[in-house]
Inverse folding.
C-alpha cells in the first residue's frame, strides 16, 4: 500500500500534477524564488509539514494547494538549494526565498558514471558550481578554479591570451608523463595535449587544449581527488579527474539568458630594468673592471660596435612600452533553455575576444552548444549533446624567442627602432641565432611575421537511458570528439634576412587532427533491501579509441601565411601560384599518436541506516600502449563513510551546535598511462637500405630496445577525512589527510652507451614518489540577517612531495625542460639543482660560492662529463601550501565577492637571471642590481662586480649561459586578490516591470592585487612546456615569461 | 531478489575476466625482433651489420686512428680543425667532446649486434660449421670492440699491479641492463682473450671478407703484445706469419697496395669498401684543407724530417709537404689518398714487428727477429740501408724495430699512442713532450650521457696534462 502511494506520488511528481486534496482543508498559495536574484524556481516541492500533501511550483514559481486546516508549516525544497521551513501565513500566502545550498545532504553530486546523493558519498570530491566559473575573466576556464577547491593547485602559465594553466591535484604523482588530471565532459574523456608542438613552443606559448571551451556552458565542475572517487577511472585516475557537466534545460518555462562582459587588461607587474644611461654606465664600469681603460668603442648593436658616446646620444627606446598596450576584451553569451515533461533543451552560443596586453596577441572564441533530452517513452530518454567551439589564437614571438622577451633581454634601451634611413634597426653580429634575422628589434619581429593557431573542437554525443524496471537505469552512449588544430607561421624575407627585394618568406602549415571516439554502457540499479538498507550497483563497460594525426606542411617561398590561400607560390615553378590545399595534399599524414582503451567497471554503494556507507569499485583497463602481459590493469577501491552524528550515543550527547559529523576512510589503486603510443615498442631496421650493405649483402639491425615490460604507473592512495556541519549549517568544514605512493613511475631516460644504442631514450618503470598532505576547507555563514549576509570560504592544502628513487640514473638524466630543475631522490619533483651562491668577496667583488661540501670557494667543480660538480638541491618549485580565501558580502541587492589565492613554501627559478645580474653582455640589467653591487674594495654587496669578460670561476669561461647559481632562486610565495566582484541584482519588482526574470550588473577585477617578495615579475609563472617532464617539474621556472594579466571588466547578466 | 544476487556475481566475473582479441596498435615502421629475425639469413644479416659499424667514420673509418694520433708526438697542431681536435690534442677531452663519442658508441653498437646474433644463433641450422662460423665472427668482433674501448677509455694494462683500475663496461647480453659498472682492466683483458680464443677455435681458416681464424690469432698477438706478454704475442704472431695464407709483400708497391682495392697478400682482416657506397671511411679521407691530404692531420715537420731522414725511404710517399699558405709548408698524411680502398685492420707487417720485438724482449729467436726487421727495412729503403747483421743484440734489434714501427704504423689503427702507453706500462720511460704515458688526460672522457644515465658509472678523472 505504502509502495503504491509512493508510486502515485512519484508519478505525480514526474507529471507535475497535484494530488487531489482532502476535506477540511485550507488553501495556501505563494511563490518560491531564489533568494539571491529573486528569480522564480519552477518545480520546487512544497509540502505541508506532518502530512503527505505536497505540490510543485509552476513555471513562474507559484504554487497553490490545499493543506489540512491544522497545517502551520510548509517544507520547501528544491535541488541545489537549502530546504526551508515557512510558517503558513494567516492569509494563506506564503512566499519563500530559497538560499543556494552550500552543504545539503540531499544535494546530488556528479561522480564517475553517474550521480550520488551527497549522503552516499564516501570519497573526496570538490564541487565548483557554475556561478564561480562563469564571468571570471580568466584566460581559460580551468584558471578560474584557482583557490576554489582545497588541494587543487592552479598555476596560470603567463599573461598571454588563451594561455594554459598547470592544474595539479594533491601534488605531483608523475615525472615523465603528464601530471594533468583527466578531463571528462559529460562522460567523454577529452583531449588534453599541451606539449608536442615544438613550433608553438618556440614562440613561448604552448597549446592550451581547454581554452576553446565555453565557461558559460558549464553547470558544474566536480573534482575527484582521491582514489575512492577517481578509482572508477582506473588507469587514468591517478592525477585526479575533473568532471565537467554542461547545462541542460530545466524549469517548465522557456528561459532566455544573455550575458555580456567587456573590459581592459594589463600586466600584474612590470619587471624593472635599468634605463639607458644606467645601463651604459654599468657597462663602462664593467669594462674598466676587466682591466680596460678609456671609453668603450664596441658596445653591442652593430658591426664594429657602438661607441659609448654614440650610444649615449641615441634617443633610446622603451621596448616594453612598444610591446605592450591596454588590451580590450569582450564576451557575449546567449542561451535559451526549457525543461518540459517530454523534453528539455539548452542551446547556447558564445563569442569572446580577448586581447592580452601584449601587442598582437589575442584569443577569439566562438562556440555553440545544444543539449537535448527527449523522453520517447515513459522509461526511455534519448539525449544528445552537440557542441562546436572555435578558438583563434593570434601569437607572436615571446619569452625566450623574442617579442616581449626581448624587452627583458637583448633589446637594449639605447637601440633605436629605425635607422636614419627609415629601415628597421637591427643588431648585427650579436646573437643572430637568438632571434633569427630580426636583430633584437621586437617591432621588426612583430611586423614581419604572422603566427596563429586556429582550433575547432566538435563534440557529438548520443545517449539513451532506459528504465525497464523501477530503480534500474540502463544507459548507453556514443561520443565523438574531433579537434583540428591548425598552426600557421609565416616569416617574411626581411625576418629571414633573405636577399633584399624578394617578397618571399617561409611558411608552416601544421595541422593536427585529434580523433576521439568513446562508447560506454552502464547499468545502475538501486536496491532498497530494507527500509534502512540501500544498495546502489553500477556495472559498465567503455571503449575508447583516440588518435592524433599530423600534417606538417612547409613552403619555403610564400607571399604570406598559408591560411590565406593565395599566398603560396610553388617553389618549383617560378611565378606560378598554387592552392594551399595542394600543399596539404602533398603533406604526408603522420599518425603521431594512437591508443585504445577497453574497460569494464563495477561499483557498489551500500547505505545502512544513513549511518554507514560502504563503497567498493573495481575497474579493469586494457590499453594498447602497453605490451603483452601488461595490457591489463585492475584498479580496486574501497571506502567507508560513517555519519557519526546519526549514532544514538552521539545524539544522546545532545550537542546542539553539531548538525552533522561524518568520517570517511578510503583506499584505492589508480593509474597513469599517458605515454607515447610506441613507447615500449622494440624495433629493427629491416629495410636493408644502401647504408646497411656490407660485401654486397644488405643487413638488418636493431634500432631501439623498446620495453615490453612497461606498465601503468600505480598510485596507492589512502584518504581519511572528517566532515562536519555546525550551527544549523552556519559552519561546515572538512579536514582531510591523504597519502599517495605512486610506484613504477614511467620515466623517459637516456640509454647508456654500453647498451649499444647511442642517443636513444627509453621508457622504464623505475621510480616512485610520495605525496602526503592535509586539506582543510571551511564554509561559514558569518552574518545572516534579512538584508545583510556575509559568507566565507577558506581552504588550505599542505602537500609534501618526495621522489623516493629514480633507479640508476643521476638527476641530470631527467631535467625539467631547459632550466635547472631536476629530479633528485629524496627531494620533491622539480627541485632546483644548482650551485649555492654565498655572496661577494669584499676584497675583489668576485662571487663566492659553496662547493658541494659546503665550503666557500671561488673555483667551482664543473658539472662536465656527466658529473654533478658543485651543484646541490637548493629548493623546490613546488609550493608546500596553497589555497584560497573567498568572502561574499551581500547587502540587499548588492553583492561583493572577493577571492584571494595564495601559495607558500615554494621557490621560483629565474632562469634568465644569470644574464641580468652582473655579467654585462648584451642583456638588460635588473633594477635591483643598481645600488646592490660591488664597486670598490671593502664593499659588502649583494651582487658581484660588473664584468663583460665574465667571472673566472664559472663552469665554462666566457659562457654566461652556464653561470647559474642560487642567486636566481627566489621565494614564490604570494597572496593575490584574484577576483574582486561587485554585483547589483535588479530587484524583482523592477525585473517584473522590465519583463525580465532576473538581471544583474557587475564590475569585476581579476588579479587585482599581488603581494610577493619575488623581485622580477609575477611568481605565478610557467615557462616550460617542452614535454610532460617540463610541465611537471617546472611549473615555477621563469624565463622572460610575460607576467599574468590583470583585468577590469563590466558585465551584465539578464534572464527573461 | 535472491536470483539477482546470485546471477550478478558470475556476470561480473565474466566481464572482468574476458579478454577477446588484444588491443593492438602497431606503430608504422617499427618491427619487433620476432618479425625481424626469423631465420638463418636474418641472423647472419644482423651479424654482418656489425661490419658496417666497424667501417663508420667515427670508429675504424677514421675516428680511432685520428684521435689516437692526435695524442702522439707526431702532430702539428697549427692547422688543426675543430674544438674537439684541440681537446684531444691537449689531453683535455670532456664528456661533450663530440669527435670521440663514436669511439665509445660504435664498439658498443657492434657488441650489441653480436649479442643479438648470438641470442638467435639457434636459428642457424644449415650446418654446424656455419653456426660455428657465425659464432666465431661474433666473438671476434666483440673481442675487437672491447679491445679498442679499453685502449681508448682506460689506463693501459700494467697501469696498476693487478690491473684493478677501471676498464670498461662488459655487457655480453642483448638484454637491457641498467646500472652496470666498469669492469677492471684485468677483467676486460680476460674477456677479450677469451672472446678471441673462442673465435680462434670456431672460425674457419678462410672466410671470404669476413673474419677468419687467422684474424683471431693476429688479434691475440696484438692483444698479448699490448699486455707485454711477449711469449704469447710471439707465438700467435708466429702462427699467422708461418701460415701460407699470407705473404709479406716485398714489392715497392707496398706503399700503395696496403690501402687499395688490389689484392693485398698481407691483409689478415680488412674492412672492405662497399663498391656501391662510393668512398667509405669518411674520417680517413676527410680533408678540411682540401689539398688532397687525408685525416685532417698534419705531421710535425721535425717528426717527419727525423723519421724519414733517408731520402730513399719509400714510406715518404705516405706524407707530403704542400703549400697551404704562401711560404708555409705543411706535411700532410697521404696514406689514405686512394679513391677507394679496403682498410686492413691488421696486417702481416704489424705481426712481423710484433714477433721481432717480442723475440728481442725475450732474447730468444733473435734470428727470426733479425729476419723480420730486415724484411721490413729492405723493402722500405730498397737496399739503401744495410741489413742488421745476424749478430745483432736483442737491444739493438728492439731499438730498430721500434723506430721502424713508428714509420710503418704511423696514422694506422692508433698504433703509436698504444706503443707509448705499452712501453710506459712496461716500466720504461715513455713521454710525449712533457707528458708521461699515464697522464689522466691521455685517457678519453666517456661521453657525459654514460655518467648521467648511470649513477654506478665512474667517469675517468679529468686531467689537462699540459702538453
Amino acid at each position: 500500500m505504502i509502495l503504491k502511494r509512493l508510486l502515485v506520488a512519484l508519478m505525480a511528481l514526474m507529471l507535475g500534477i497535484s494530488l487531489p486534496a482532502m476535506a477540511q482543508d485550507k488553501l495556501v498559495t505563494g511563490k518560491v524564488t531564489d533568494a539571491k536574484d529573486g528569480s522564480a524556481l519552477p518545480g520546487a516541492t512544497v509540502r505541508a509539514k506532518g502530512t503527505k500533501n505536497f505540490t510543485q511550483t509552476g513555471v513562474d514559481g507559484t504554487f497553490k494547494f490545499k493543506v489540512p486546516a491544522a497545517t502551520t508549516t510548509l517544507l520547501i525544497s528544491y535541488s541545489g538549494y537549502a530546504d526551508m521551513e515557512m510558517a503558513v501565513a494567516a492569509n494563506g500566502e506564503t512566499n519563500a526565498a530559497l538560499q543556494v545550498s552550500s552543504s545539503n545532504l540531499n544535494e546530488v553530486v556528479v561522480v564517475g558514471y553517474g550521480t550520488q546523493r551527497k549522503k552516499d558519498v564516501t570519497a573526496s570530491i570538490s564541487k565548483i558550481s557554475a556561478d564561480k566559473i562563469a564571468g571570471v575573466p580568466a584566460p581559460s576556464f580551468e584558471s578560474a578554479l584557482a583557490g576554489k577547491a582545497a588541494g587543487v593547485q592552479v598555476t596560470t602559465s603567463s599573461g598571454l591570451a588563451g594561455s594554459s594553466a598547470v592544474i595539479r591535484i594533491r601534488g605531483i604523482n608523475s615525472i615523465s608523463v603528464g601530471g594533468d588530471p583527466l578531463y571528462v565532459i559529460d562522460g567523454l574523456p577529452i583531449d588534453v595535449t599541451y606539449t608536442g608542438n615544438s613550433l608553438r613552443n618556440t614562440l613561448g606559448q604552448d597549446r592550451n587544449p581547454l581554452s576553446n571551451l565555453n565557461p558559460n556552458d558549464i553547470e558544474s565542475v566536480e573534482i575527484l581527488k582521491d582514489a575512492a572517487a577517481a578509482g572508477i577511472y582506473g588507469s587514468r585516475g591517478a592525477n585526479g579527474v575533473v568532471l565537467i557537466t554542461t547545462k541542460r534545460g530545466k524549469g517548465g518555462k522557456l528561459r532566455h539568458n544573455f550575458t555580456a562582459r567587456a573590459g581592459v587588461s594589463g600586466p600584474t607587474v612590470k619587471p624593472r630594468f635599468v634605463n639607458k644611461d644606467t645601463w651604459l654606465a654599468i657597462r663602462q664600469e664593467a669594462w674598466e673592471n676587466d682591466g680596460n681603460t678609456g671609453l668603450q668603442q664596441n658596445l653591442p648593436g652593430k658591426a664594429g660596435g657602438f661607441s659609448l658616446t654614440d650610444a649615449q646620444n641615441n634617443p633610446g627606446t622603451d621596448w616594453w612600452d612598444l610591446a605592450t598596450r591596454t588590451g580590450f576584451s569582450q564576451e557575449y553569451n546567449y542561451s535559451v533553455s526549457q525543461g518540459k515533461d517530454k523534453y528539455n533543451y539548452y542551446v547556447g552560443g558564445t563569442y569572446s575576444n580577448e586581447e592580452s596586453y601584449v601587442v598582437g596577441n589575442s584569443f577569439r572564441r566562438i562556440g555553440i552548444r545544444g543539449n537535448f533530452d527527449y523522453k520517447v517513452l515513459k522509461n526511455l530518454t534519448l539525449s544528445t549533446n552537440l557542441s562546436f567551439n572555435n578558438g583563434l589564437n593570434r601569437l607572436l614571438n615571446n619569452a625566450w624567442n623574442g617579442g616581449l622577451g626581448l624587452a627583458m633581454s637583448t633589446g637594449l634601451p639605447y637601440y633605436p627602432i629605425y635607422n636614419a634611413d627609415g629601415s628597421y634597426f637591427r643588431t648585427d653580429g650579436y646573437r643572430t641565432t637568438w632571434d633569427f634575422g630580426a636583430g633584437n628589434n621586437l617591432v621588426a619581429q612583430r611586423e614581419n611575421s604572422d603566427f596563429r593557431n586556429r582550433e575547432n573542437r566538435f563534440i557529438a554525443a548520443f545517449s539513451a537511458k532506459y528504465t525497464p524496471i523501477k530503480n534500474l537505469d540502463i544507459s548507453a552512449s556514443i561520443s565523438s570528439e574531433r579537434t583540428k588544430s591548425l598552426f600557421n607561421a609565416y616569416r617574411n624575407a626581411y625576418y629571414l634576412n633573405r636577399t633584399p627585394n624578394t617578397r618571399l618568406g617561409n611558411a608552416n602549415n601544421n595541422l593536427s587532427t585529434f580523433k576521439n571516439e568513446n562508447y560506454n554502457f552502464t547499468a545502475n540499479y538501486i536496491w532498497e533491501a530494507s527500509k534502512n538498507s540501500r544498495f546502489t550497483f553500477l556495472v559498465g563497460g567503455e571503449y575508447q579509441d583516440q588518435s592524433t594525426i599530423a600534417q606538417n606542411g612547409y613552403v619555403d617561398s610564400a607571399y604570406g601565411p598559408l591560411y590565406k590561400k593565395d599566398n603560396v607560390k610553388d617553389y618549383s615553378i617560378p611565378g606560378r601560384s598554387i592552392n594551399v590545399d595542394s600543399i596539404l595534399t602533398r603533406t604526408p599524414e603522420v599518425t603521431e599518436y594512437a591508443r585504445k582503451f577497453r574497460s569494464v567497471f563495477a561499483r557498489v554503494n551500500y547505505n545502512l541506516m544513513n549511518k554507514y556507507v560502504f563503497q567498493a569499485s573495481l575497474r579493469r583497463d586494457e590499453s594498447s600502449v602497453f605490451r603483452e602481459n601488461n595490457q591489463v590493469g585492475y584498479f580496486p577501491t574501497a571506502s567507508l563513510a560513517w555519519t557519526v552524528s546519526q549514532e544514538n550515543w552521539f545524539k544522546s550527547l545532545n550537542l546542539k551546535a553539531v548538525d552533522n559529523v561524518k568520517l570517511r576512510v578510503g583506499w584505492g589503486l589508480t593509474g597513469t598511462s599517458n605515454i607515447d603510443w610506441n613507447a615500449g615498442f622494440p624495433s629493427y631496421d629491416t629495410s636493408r637500405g644502401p647504408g646497411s650493405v656490407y660485401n654486397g649483402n644488405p643487413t638488418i639491425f636493431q634500432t631501439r630496445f623498446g620495453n615490453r615490460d612497461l606498465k601503468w604507473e600505480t598510485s596507492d592512495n589512502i584518504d581519511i577525512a572528517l566532515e562536519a556541519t555546525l550551527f544549523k549549517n552556519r559552519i561546515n568544514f572538512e579536514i582531510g589527510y591523504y597519502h599517495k605512493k605512486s610506484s613504477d613511475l614511467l620515466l623517459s631516460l637516456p640509454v647508456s652507451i654500453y647498451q649499444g644504442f647511442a642517443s636513444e631514450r627509453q621508457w622504464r618503470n623505475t621510480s616512485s614518489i610520495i605525496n602526503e598532505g592535509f586539506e582543510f576547507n571551511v564554509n561559514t555563514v558569518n552574518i545572516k540577517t534579512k538584508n545583510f549576509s556575509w559568507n566565507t570560504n577558506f581552504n588550505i592544502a599542505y602537500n609534501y612531495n618526495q621522489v623516493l628513487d629514480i633507479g640508476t640514473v643521476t638527476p641530470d638524466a631527467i631535467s625539467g625542460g631547459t632550466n635547472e630543475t631536476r629530479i633528485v631522490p629524496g627531494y620533491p619533483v622539480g627541485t632546483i639543482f644548482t650551485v649555492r651562491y654565498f655572496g661577494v668577496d669584499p676584497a675583489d667583488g668576485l662571487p663566492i660560492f659553496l662547493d658541494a661540501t659546503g665550503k666557500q670557494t671561488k673555483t667551482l667543480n664543473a658539472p662536465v662529463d656527466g658529473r654533478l660538480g658543485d651543484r646541490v638541491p637548493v629548493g623546490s618549485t613546488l609550493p608546500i601550501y596553497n589555497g584560497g580565501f573567498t568572502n561574499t558580502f551581500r547587502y540587499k541587492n548588492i553583492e561583493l565577492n572577493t577571492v584571494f589565492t595564495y601559495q607558500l613554501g615554494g621557490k621560483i627559478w629565474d632562469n634568465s637571471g644569470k644574464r641580468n645580474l652582473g655579467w654585462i653582455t648584451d642583456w638588460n640589467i635588473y633594477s635591483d642590481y643598481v645600488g646592490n653591487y660591488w664597486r670598490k674594495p671593502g664593499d659588502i654587496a649583494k651582487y658581484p662586480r660588473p664584468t663583460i669578460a665574465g667571472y673566472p670561476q664559472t663552469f665554462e669561461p666566457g659562457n654566461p649561459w652556464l653561470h647559474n647559481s642560487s642567486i636566481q632562486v627566489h621565494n614564490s610565495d604570494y597572496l593575490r586578490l584574484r577576483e574582486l566582484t561587485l554585483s547589483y541584482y535588479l530587484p524583482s519588482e523592477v525585473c517584473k516591470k522590465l519583463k525580465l526574470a532576473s538581471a544583474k550588473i557587475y564590475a569585476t577585477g581579476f588579479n587585482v592585487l599581488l603581494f610577493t617578495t619575488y623581485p622580477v615579475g609575477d611568481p605565478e609563472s610557467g615557462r616550460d612546456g617542452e614535454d610532460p617532464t617540463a610541465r611537471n617539474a617546472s611549473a615555477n621556472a621563469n624565463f622572460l615569461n610575460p607576467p599574468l594579466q590583470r583585468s577590469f571588466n563590466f558585465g551584465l547578466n539578464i534572464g527573461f | 531478489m535472491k536470483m539477482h544476487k546470485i546471477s550478478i556475481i558470475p556476470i561480473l566475473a565474466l566481464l572482468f575476466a574476458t579478454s577477446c582479441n588484444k588491443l593492438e596498435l602497431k606503430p608504422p615502421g617499427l618491427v619487433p625482433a620476432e618479425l625481424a629475425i626469423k631465420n638463418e639469413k636474418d641472423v647472419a644479416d644482423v651479424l654482418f651489420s656489425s661490419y658496417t659499424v666497424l667501417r663508420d667514420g667515427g670508429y675504424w673509418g677514421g675516428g680511432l686512428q685520428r684521435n689516437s694520433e692526435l695524442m702522439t708526438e707526431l702532430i702539428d697542431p697549427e692547422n688543426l680543425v675543430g674544438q674537439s681536435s684541440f681537446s684531444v690534442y691537449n689531453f683535455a677531452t670532456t664528456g661533450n667532446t663530440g669527435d670521440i663519442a663514436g669511439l665509445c658508441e660504435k664498439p658498443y653498437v657492434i657488441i650489441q649486434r653480436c649479442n643479438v646474433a648470438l641470442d638467435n644463433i639457434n636459428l642457424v641450422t644449415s650446418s654446424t660449421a656455419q653456426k660455428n662460423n657465425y659464432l666465431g665472427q661474433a666473438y671476434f668482433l666483440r673481442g675487437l670492440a672491447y679491445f679498442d674501448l679499453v685502449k681508448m677509455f682506460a689506463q693501459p694494462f700494467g697501469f696498476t699491479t693487478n690491473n684493478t683500475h677501471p676498464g670498461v663496461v662488459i655487457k655480453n647480453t642483448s638484454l637491457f641492463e641498467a646500472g652496470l659498472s666498469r669492469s677492471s682492466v684485468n677483467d676486460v683483458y680476460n674477456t677479450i682473450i677469451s672472446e678471441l680464443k673462442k673465435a680462434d677455435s670456431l672460425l674457419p681458416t678462410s672466410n671470404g671478407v669476413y673474419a677468419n681464424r687467422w684474424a683471431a690469432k693476429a688479434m691475440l698477438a696484438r692483444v698479448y703484445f699490448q699486455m707485454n706478454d711477449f711469449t704469447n704475442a710471439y707465438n700467435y704472431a708466429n702462427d699467422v706469419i708461418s701460415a701460407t695464407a699470407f705473404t709479406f709483400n716485398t714489392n715497392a708497391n707496398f706503399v700503395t697496395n696496403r690501402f687499395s682495392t688490389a689484392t693485398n697478400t698481407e691483409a689478415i682482416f680488412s674492412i672492405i669498401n662497399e663498391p656501391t657506397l662510393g668512398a667509405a671511411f669518411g674520417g680517413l679521407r676527410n680533408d678540411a684543407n682540401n689539398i688532397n691530404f687525408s685525416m685532417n692531420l698534419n705531421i710535425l715537420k721535425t717528426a717527419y724530417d727525423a723519421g724519414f731522414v733517408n731520402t730513399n725511404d719509400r714510406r715518404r710517399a705516405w706524407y707530403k709537404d704542400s703549400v697551404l699558405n704562401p711560404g708555409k709548408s705543411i706535411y700532410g698524411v697521404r696514406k689514405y689518398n686512394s679513391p677507394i680502398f679496403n682498410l686492413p685492420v691488421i696486417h702481416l707487417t704489424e705481426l712481423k714487428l710484433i714477433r721481432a720485438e717480442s723475440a728481442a724482449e725475450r732474447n730468444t729467436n733473435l734470428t727470426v727477429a733479425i729476419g723480420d726487421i730486415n724484411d721490413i727495412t729492405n723493402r722500405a729503403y730498397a737496399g739503401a740501408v744495410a741489413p742488421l747483421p745476424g749478430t745483432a743484440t736483442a737491444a739493438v734489434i728492439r731499438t730498430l724495430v721500434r723506430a721502424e714501427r713508428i714509420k710503418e704504423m704511423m696514422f694506422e689503427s692508433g698504433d703509436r699512442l698504444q706503443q707509448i702507453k705499452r712501453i710506459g706500462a712496461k716500466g720504461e720511460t715513455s713521454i710525449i713532450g712533457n707528458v708521461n704515458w699515464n697522464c689522466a688526460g691521455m685517457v678519453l672522457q666517456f661521453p657525459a650521457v654514460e655518467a648521467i644515465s648511470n649513477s654506478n658509472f665512474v667517469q675517468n678523472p679529468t686531467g689537462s696534462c699540459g702538453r
